[in-house]
Amino acid sequence: MRRFAFAMSAVLALAVLANPVDAQLLKVGGHVAMISGLEEASSLQGEFGFGARAGVQLPGAPIGAFVSATYFMPDCDECTYWTGSAFGKVGLPLPVVAPYLLGGIQRRASAVGDLEAAENGFFVGVGASLGAIFLEGTMEFNEDDPAVPDFDNDPIVFKGGFLIG
C-alpha cells in the first residue's frame, strides 16, 4: 500500500505540473494500478503496476476512445503479468469533478517460469477526473478456470493517473 501511495503522489505531482490544452484531441498520460478482488484466493491480490494510455476525446465532449497498457509486478521472481486495453469512455461534462463510465476489451498475459497464458476479456468501470487527474475502478471478466474453481478470476483494478492534452 505504501508503494501505491508513493506512486500516486508522484502521479499527482506530474498532473499538477502539466498544463492541458483545451483544443487538443489527443490525450496521453500515465497511471499506477493496484489489483484487488472479491475473494482472497487471488494470487494477484494487492499487486502494484504502472502503465501508459493514449486516446482521442473531442474538446468539451464527454466521450472518447483510448488504449492503455499496464505492467504489474508480482512478488514472484519468475512471474510476469501485463494487460493491454482498448476502451470507450462516456462521462458527464461537469466543470470540477467529471464522473464517467468506461468499458472495453482487454488482453491479459501472464507467465510463471516457462509456463505462459494469455486471454482476451471484457471489463467495465467507473471513474472521475479532476482536471488532468483521474481515479477509476474496473471489474475484469475473465474465463473461469474449471481446474481451480475457487480462484478469483475476475479482479477489480484501481487506477489513478493523469492525462495531458
Oligomer: single chain
Q: Please give the count of helices.
A: 1
Distance between the termini: 30 Å
- The unreliable regions are 146-152
| Number of E-state strands | 8
Question: What's a quick, concise take on this entry?
Answer:
By secondary structure, this protein is mainly β. It is 10% helix and 57% strand. It is globular and about 45 Å long.
Supply database-style keywords.
globular, 8 strands, 10% helix
Fold and architecture overview:
This protein is mostly beta strands and 165 residues long. 10% of the residues lie in helices and 57% in strands. The chain is built from one helix and eight strands. The protein has one helix spanning 2-17; strands at 26-36, 48-57, 63-72, 79-91, 97-112, 115-130, 133-141, 156-164. Strands 1-2-3-4-5-6-7-8 form an eight-stranded antiparallel barrel. Residues 146-152 have low confidence and may be disordered.
